[in-house]
Write a structure and sequence with these properties.
- This protein has about 130 residues and is mainly beta.
- The relative contact order is 0.25.
- It has one domain (about 5-125).
- The longest helix is centred in the first third of the chain and has 9 residues, at about 25-35.
- It has helices spanning about 25-35, 100-105, and strands at about 5-10, 15-25, 40-45, 45-50, 60-65, 80, 85-90, 95, 110-115, 120-125.
- The strands form two sheets. Strands 1, 2, 3, 4, 7 and 8 form a six-stranded antiparallel sheet that branches. A four-stranded mixed sheet has the order 6-5-10-9, with no helix packed on it.
- The protein has two helices and ten strands, in the order ββαββββββαββ.
- The model has no long low-confidence stretch (mean pLDDT about 95).
C-alpha cells in the first residue's frame, strides 16, 4: 500500500530540505537516504533517522541537539552524523508524514560554522 509521505532531509553542511514522495516501503527510503542501517532519535514528535554507525565510521556531523546551554558539547547534547531523514510516527509506531508541529520545530533549526569553515545544523533545546 502506498502512502504520500512528507519528510525532511539534511546532509552534513547543508540545510533542512522538505520533501514529499509516494512510498510503499518507508524502511527502504530511510536506509537509502542514510546509506545503511538506520537508528532513530525521537525528539519533539520527530523521528530523526541516521546511519546507525555514523559516528564510528567518522561521518561528518549533520545535527546537534543542544540540551545544555554550555557553549561546548556536553553529555546532555545529541550529535548525529551523516545524512539524516526526519519523519513522524502514529500511535502504532508506523512511520508517517511530519505533522505541522514537527515542521514548525524543524524550521527552528539553524546552521553554525565550526572548525575550519565546516557547517552543521543545530537546535537549541533549552
Amino acid at each position: 500500500m502506498y502512502q504520500n509521505l512528507i519528510y525532511a532531509t539534511a546532509k552534513p553542511g547543508e540545510q533542512v530540505i522538505f520533501n514529499e514522495k509516494k512510498v510503499s516501503d518507508t524502511l527502504s527510503l530511510l536506509q537509502d537516504h542514510v546509506g545503511g542501517y538506520v537508528d532513530c532519535v525521537h525528539f519533539e514528535g520527530i523521528d530523526i533517522w541516521c546511519h546507525d554507525e555514523g559516528m564510528l565510521l567518522g561521518l561528518e556531523p549533520s545535527l546537534i541537539i543542544k540540551n545544555d546551554p554550555s557553549p561546548r558539547l556536553t553529555q546532555r547534547d545529541i550529535m548525529l552524523a551523516g545524512p539524516i531523514i526526519m519523519t513522524s510516527h502514529n500511535d502504532e509506531g508506523d512511520t508517517v508524514s511530519l505533522n505541522l508541529k514537527a515542521i514548525d520545530t524543524l524550521l527552528q533549526i539553524r546552521q553554525i560554522t565550526y572548525g575550519s569553515g565546516k557547517k552543521c545544523l543545530i537546535f537549541f533545546n533549552y
